TrEMBL record:
InterPro entries: HTH_LacI, LacI/GalR-like_sensor, Lambda_DNA-bd_dom_sf, Peripla_BP_I. The keyword DNA-binding applies. PANTHER family: HTH-TYPE TRANSCRIPTIONAL REGULATOR GALS, LACI-RELATED TRANSCRIPTIONAL REPRESSOR. Pfam families: LacI, Peripla_BP_3. This is Transcriptional regulator, LacI family (HTH and periplasmic-binding domains). Keywords: DNA-binding, Transcription, Transcription regulation. Residues 2-56 form the HTH lacI-type domain. GO terms for molecular function: DNA-binding transcription factor activity; transcription cis-regulatory region binding.
Amino acid sequence: MVSIKDVAKHAGVSISAVSKTLNGYSDVSEATRRKILQAAQELNYSPNMLAKNLKHKVTKTIALIISNFEKANGKDGVVFQIISGVYAAATRYGYEVVIYTRSLSEQQDKSYWQFCNDHKIAGVVISGLRTTDPYFEELIDSDIPSVVIDAETIGPHAGSVITDNLEAARLAVQYLISKGHQEIGMVNGHRYATVSIKREQGYREALEEAGLTFIPSRVVEADFTEEGAYELTEGFISANPRLTAVFVASDLMAIGVMKRITELGLRVPEDISLMGFDDIVLCSYTTPKLSTIRQDFVGLGYAALEQVVKMLERNTPGYNKILPFSIVDRETIMIL
């Protein structure tokens, strides 16, 4: 199936220009318009005519797109909390929410603009997006009001809602340092997530501010999975025997680390202290209870949909909204 992305590539223009041309906007030059229409004809592209006129119709449907849903883990409850926040805001503002999941292959098969128009979507909240996903760049050029959770994306029709991941990570590591720890490692998610990049940056800044040396081998990636963290822990600890604390970029990974540490005959926090990130429900049920950074996932969902509504009803440009966080010290940090 030919997509709007194919038309844009064939014509040598942006997806946004194709979108505007097909929707009858006047701010596209005549030369560009002809080039796009010729490309569409050559590729035998025929957009949904109902979707084509969507911009001129009243619609109260906002989509919650969960990207890479197949990699999500229901154990942490994060997706459910985001959905709860989105629905709470939708109820307040009188909108209907429809949930879609889009894998990488599905994103490659049908462009962001085409998907939204085919489903008559007025605006979008999108979660779980990687920086390498096709939709990440496409939504910036799109004229569909879109807000991304946990990835900074700003444009005329694109905004974001995040926790200040850099500052949260920096303060988390500072907190470990304040308890006497100087040999601190990090278990991160993956390099394609904005949150991973920011959290590692915060980790490095905290060490540098304390006059401690950043050692690259003390940072490993476990793809935000409990299993991945569990499997790498033995090698990580063996390669870094001087570690007294580990900052882990998600609670699920921290649980995996804790489980393996215990199996190795070590104690948390007496031998190794742990600081997680997220404050999922399970943190209060681990033994010992996990210390962590608390994120407001319900608030992220609520704020994201609220921003989409502002774009739709007030023509507000996209912006980056930062939500607060807090440190929750339970039982996994030892004072040295």
